[in-house]
Amino acid sequence: MNDRTQTAEAFVENTLRALTLEEKVSLCHSGSKFGVNPVERLGIPVFEMSDGPHGVRHEISKTSWEPAGCDDDHSTYLPTGTAQAATWNRELMAQAGAVLGSEARHRGKDVILGPGLNIIRTPLCGRNFEYYSEDPYLVRELVVPAIRAIQEQDVAACAKHYAANNQELNRTGTDVEMDERTLRELYLPGFEAAVRDGGVLTVMGAYNKFRGQHCCHHAYLVNEVLKTEWGFQGAFISDWAGVTSTEEAARCGTDIEMGTNVASFDDFFLARAYLDGLRSGRYSMAELDDKVRRTLRVMYLAGVFDAHRKAGSRNTPEHQRAALDCAREAVVLLKNEGDLLPLDSKKIRRLAVIGENAAIRHAAGGNSSGVKTLYEITPLEGIRRLLGDSVEVVYARGYPDNRDGLEPISTPLLFTADEGSGVRGWKVLYQHGRSFAGSGVAGYAENAAYHDLSDTLPSGFHPQNFCITWQTELTAPETGAYAFGFVTDGIAELLVNGKSVCRTESDATRHLQKYDLQLTKGEVVAITLRHSKSDNATYVKFGWTHPGQSHTGSVRDEALALARSADAVIFVGGLTHMDDIEGRDRKDLTLPDGQDELIAELLTINPDTVLTFIGGSAVEMPWIEQAKAVLWLWYDGMEGGTAAAEVLFGITNPSGKLPFTFPRRLADVPAHNNLGTYQADISHYREGLTVGYRYHVTHNVKPLFCFGHGLSYTRFSYADLSIVPGPESIVVEVTVTNNGPVSGKDVVQLYLEDIVCSVPRPRIELKGFAKVSLEPGESTRVAFAITRRDLSFYDEASRSWVVEDGEFIAHVGNSSENLPLRQSFVWASR
């Protein structure tokens, strides 16, 4: 970003003096879904924002959540947060940040709503895929280069969601309770680094409460810590509909209110009600001026008023290469028994690729982080492109296994949705509340095959309090047996010819509801599908079976038959954005749709089956002892399939490392094995500091795969650990050597252990890492500078960071479990 700091304050003060009271208030809340009101009289344009954090979201209508219908709002789809973090590569974080900032500028955005910094406390959190890690040091080190790179493109980054937004379960109402030391050591360091080291220009509040007060207007978190203690000078933005009170928003740090669900933008808490309170003297003019100063400062520093502001670029070959570079280094090789990987294509004549995730595209999913991308290469496409005609590649979906699998209804078979609409498909009615009564808002849809409930709401509807009805009439194309059915994670009902034929009474994730009937050719059937929004419901899928549908056996039978006929088998499974999704947590750690059973059968048929998985959170693996090769692919962006194929066949040597722990079972996660620590109403963080690897190492609980784990096709060794005390820091050095046959990258990791301390500490804590690239036989010396802060704990009594004199141990290796080198040193106060 250009150096505008010397002239910023003069601009801010001059503009502030020229603004009327009404104009100042207009700058405190949005005037569209993603824009703050302009002040045309003074040349202040709309302050435009867009969702991130791994691509610029498609254009949204100004007054509703409906897509704006643009055909030029495609953006580069980068690997998601957990995938980026799995690279453990600061340079790649900067590269991805530069792409995000440049594309936001090209789309005319002033703020990109990312990166997401929340700690991965529970593997069930539906939004984990957007975040980085369970470890605050790793988050801190990755977020700073990302923010700096975004803002160098004349776009403001937005660190979110501040703070303790670690679950989607009742995310707008849950109240987080934790001690101050846990807050400071685990949940705030990433945000502190974003402010103090990254210079982030905006911060977004979290939906949840913290110690009884909503985080989007929080006296302690925002006024005391963020703005006073850390000296944050930028704008504090609410999450969309995160403001709940004019009084608290006025006094407790909210600078810009966004997305409140009311009939008019004038009804926002910081709009008419705030203006009336200012006029009556209820609210302070000084507080108002502080809000406006911050917004104007961000606009100025982001170049909004600069005639030479960077224009940005979008969907360039350079951006696509950046997505591929990140995707390659994100892939984590979890297991490789007997060096099964990489596969040798010269020894394979017929390759079976099995699994629904081999052919699914994920860019548009996840709710607010969905990206409309020019292309997305799936693993199946990546494999076929790499192998060309040299290997016969056959594919079977494999799961979910259902002989009566539902297909979308072909639109031409449907009557026009409503007379005069010009749309052949479905009439849609949105209604307030959870009962199908009263007035609503009508719309149209070409199909009802899949509905992401969060992205289809008209303006003014509360995201947790509405219902939808879809209606159409179908002409049977031929005589025979039909079935209509749906799958939802909420409450739904299907009516055929006005008769209720099946329904769900409560959350029922992936339980098929189906109605069979006989129809004659030309017969018209009236179909109604109704959905009442339950607290965590996010989707409805609807479809049918018909006489013309091919039934050659179950999808599992087809997959198993292909596996028997192939020389090699690659399974591609895992999660989708019906699992990893904003607004809902997963129910458990199991793979959905019967994948575990299918995997067990594949391993019986071919013990060398290679297992690959897409997903943003950990899963259980009950078959892990039988599996020889396991790859974790993440949601790896538009080039994810290319990267997966390259790793599978040895073009790329995997170098990704897990940024969070894979537990063996949910009971091994402290957020779930302590009563009351994961709740819809109040979540008590009783586990304190022992989150992720801190818990597993401290309490000797064996994980499925540990934090920092990731294998390579070569071998690295560590030697000659040395520690040199200095006046301001302690320098730890180690020699790393590539002892294997191919070039590769490894992540050298440094963990510290405090031997004697007056307060309990986790046994080890990450305090340094470096990614190195080495040719076969090559060695390099890696150095880490350990600061006083790295040795410290947060002392609640003095409200400060404290390091006690005494012995520490430095552990060095390439995962939290593989730490072959250790050496003690003594810290003495200077």
- Overall structural class, as computed from helix and strand content, comes to alpha/beta
Poorly predicted runs: none
CATH fold field value of the largest domain: TIM Barrel
CATH class of the largest domain: Alpha Beta
CATH superfamily of the largest domain: Glycoside hydrolase, family 3, N-terminal domain
The overall pLDDT, averaged over residues, is: 92
Determine the strand fraction and express it as a percent band.
15-25%
The count of β-strands is 35
For the terminal residues, how far apart are their CA atoms? Answer: 39 Å
Name the overall outline. globular
Main beta-sheet annotation:
6 strands, mixed
Q: What is the number of domains?
A: 4
Q: Compute the CA-based radius of gyration.
A: 27 Å
Q: Could you estimate the helical fraction of the residues in percent?
A: 10-25%
In CATH terms, what is the architecture of the largest domain?
Alpha-Beta Barrel
Strand order of the largest sheet: 1-2-3-4-6-9
User: Counting H and I runs of at least 4 residues, what is the number of helices?
Assistant: 19
